[in-house]
Every structure is written in structure tokens, then in C-alpha cells.
Amino acid sequence: MFIGHFAVGLASKTAAPRASLGWLMTAPLLLDLLWPVFLLLGLERVRIAPGDTAFTPLAFDSYPWSHSLLMSVIWALLFGGGYFLATRYARGAVVIALGVVSHWVMDAITHRPDLPLAPWSSTMVGYGLWNSPRATLLVELGLFAAAVWMYSRTTVSRDRTGRFAFACQPLHGTSIANRRFR
């Protein structure tokens, strides 16, 4: 999943309207932000293998510390907990933690069976949506379009810059009883 992770971040604004969009967008991307660090440290491995899937030539040989189900839950608790300590917004912390775990769920749909359940597990999960570029684009673009629509109905621009920067945003703030969120 690529832009599908961005879709989760945007759509999360409906569940945690007071949460910063930066935190909400980072949550479903967190595992992919950790992954290159673990690659550089030699803890995880990837190789370029054209044809591994029809959508991407990357063969994820080992990425248990960033992309196993167990570690995604641990990263979610740490990231959501950090958010709660910084803001004291419990609903936002839960939504952010769920956003982190959503990464694994969405990757399980798209990847071939290469996602481990735990760092020591030999059981791999993946349903292979990436084997069909057309289906991948349909699902990802559909998710993203729905998320942009949800986001545009949840937020209200604070000023003229906000109205023009997000062209889909209504000019006169017609969403959620014209409330303003931070």
C-alpha cells in the first residue's frame, strides 16, 4: 500500500478532530519511516527483484522489526502513548495508535506473503493485491478519494490561504456545523 496509508491519515481526522494532521498522517506511515533506519542498521533486508509482484520490484526478504504484526502493535503503543503524553488527548492517542497498526493490515492486503506475525515467527501473511496493478490502483485511489472527501467534510479552513490551498474545501465552511478544529 502506498497512498492508502495517506488515506488512513486523512480519514482519521473524522475520528480525532482535535489531533494534529501531522500526527495523524505520520501514524499510518510510521512503519515505513522506521524501515529504512533498520535497513541501514542491517537489521532488515530488501532486494530489487523485478517481477516479485506486478506492482513493485521490491522483495522484502526480512523486516520483522518494522513490519511484523507484533512490532506494529508495540510501535503503535509507543507512538500513541507519546502523543498522549504530549497532548493529553486520549481519543487522539487511540486513533493514532490504530493508525500505526492499520499499516500492517493494509500491507497484508497488498503484499505477497512476506509480513511476519512476530520478529521470530516463520508464519508470513500477505494476500497479494500487488499482483494486479489495475486492482491496486483502483483500491488505493478509491481509498484516497474517499479519505480526501471525508477530510474536506471534517475540517474548516481558518483563513483564505487554507481555502485556496485545499481546493476541495468548501469556501464558506459548510462542514460539521462550521466548527473550527486545530
Could you say how many structural domains there are in total?
A: 1
Uncertain runs are 168-182
Kindly, what is the distance between the CA atoms of the first and last residues, rounded to a whole number of angstroms? 28 Å
How is the biggest beta sheet arranged?
Answer: 2 strands, antiparallel
Helix percent band: 55-70%
Strand order of the largest sheet: 1-2
The mean pLDDT is 88
Number of helical stretches of at least 4 residues? 7
Outline type: globular
Query: What percent of residues are in strands?
Result: 5-15%
Order of helices and strands: HHEEHHHEEHH
Q: Got a strand count?
A: 4
Q: Pairing-aware structural class of the strands and helices?
A: mainly alpha
* Rg (CA only): 18 Å
Gist of the model:
By secondary structure, the protein is mainly alpha-helical. Helix content is 55%, strand content 7%. The protein is built from seven helices and four strands.
Give a description of the structure.
The protein starts with a helix and ends in a 17-residue tail after the last helix. It has one domain. It is mainly α and 182 residues long. It has helices spanning 3-11, 21-40, 64-67, 69-87, 90-110, 133-154, 160-165; strands spanning 45-48, 58-62, 115-116, 124-125. Strands 1-2 form a two-stranded antiparallel sheet. A two-stranded antiparallel sheet has the order 3-4.
